[in-house]
Write a structure and sequence with these properties.
Helix 2 (40-49) packs parallel to helix 3 (69-76). It is globular, with a radius of gyration of 13 Å. It has helices spanning 15-29, 40-49, 69-76, 81-84, 98-106, 120-126, and strands spanning 2-3, 6-11, 34-37, 51-52, 55-61, 87-93, 110-115. By secondary structure, it is of the alpha/beta class. It has a five-stranded parallel beta sheet with strand order 3-2-5-6-7, sandwiched between helices. A two-stranded parallel ribbon has the order 1-4. The protein starts with a strand and ends with a helix. 27% of the residues are buried. It has a single domain (2-126), classed as Rossmann fold (3-Layer(aba) Sandwich), CATH 3.40.50.2300.
Length: 128
């Protein structure tokens, strides 16, 4: 499946958080190319099975069962460099401790770390 130049992937184990973030993205940018998956494993599967020509912005929750956000980032680093260069990752969390902040901010694929719930203004600033 081919994605449009502005695509989003929401990775969150909470159905409600995925739904709210997805609606916010769709309304903020008036787009429909918003995909949602419940975890890191599914996000990796998505990256392996979809192609896209522009940037893919991943809104990534940290605290998830099976594969948390940081474990996803470790696996993301193993992907092809040409794929990684077209992906921006925004970490979302309802709580950040100092270690999470340092770890997230030091990762080359992480564009920003934001607190939940995400606001339309924060989202617009990310996609300029």
């Amino acid at each position: 499946m081919s994605l449009s130049p502005k695509s989003f992937l929401i990775v969150d184990d909470s159905y409600i958080d995925r739904l709210v973030s997805g609606m916010l993205v769709k309304r903020t940018f008036n787009i429909h190319d918003v995909h949602e998956v419940p975890g890191g494993n599914e996000a990796l599967e998505f990256l392996h099975t979809h192609t896209f020509t522009g940037k893919l912005i991943i809104l990534l929750d940290i605290m998830m069962p099976r594969m948390n956000g940081f474990e996803f980032l470790d696996q993301f680093e193993l992907l092809d460099a040409s794929l990684k260069s077209r992906v921006d990752i925004v970490i979302l969390s309802s709580t950040f401790d100092d270690n999470d902040m340092k770890r997230g901010n030091s990762h080359p694929a992480v564009k920003k770390m934001l607190s939940k719930p995400l606001s339309a203004n924060e989202l617009r600033e990310l996609v300029v």
